[in-house]
Amino acid sequence: MSRPFYTSFAWAYDLLIQEPVAERLEFVTGMWAKRGVTRGAHVLDAGCGTGRYSVALAKRGFKVTGIDASPEQITEATKRQEGSETEVDFRVADICILQAIPSVDAILCRGVLNDLTDDASRQAVFPAFAEMLRPGGALVLDVREWRATEERKRRCPVFEREVETDTGLLKFRSVTELRP
Questions:
Q1: Distance CA 147, CA 101 (A)
Q2: Which among 70, 94, 165, 173 has most CB atoms closer than 10 A?
């Protein structure tokens, strides 16, 4: 399955997909705080993409490791970090495989679990998270509700966006095909 958002269009991902990062991080860090995970804690951004959440967490004082399976996304995440006075440990890695990182205090995994479409990945991801997360740590997941997503994609299977870039106008068109 071709995923141009994550590969050939990684450089434009943040231009094409807008998200209210600050608002969402207020919720995430609030949930973590209830579990004792505050500034200085080591957190994993599992499926970090272009690093927008990783860098924002680092700016809030967390020690962040960001992993993503896409080398192109990690390249963009590393660029985002440049000049931001933050330090995030970005790595190309599979969230379904235990990573060689010190135990983390919290894990954020947003918008990634829906991409695990085979049974083996679904069965591997949570044991991997459990091994990386310290006892009593906090796991925050953001998963789209399938029926609502399916209905939305049936109504509007085409996503189009035009944005001006340094090299000209980018016209992006993505068509979703549902296969039950």
A1: 36
A2: 70
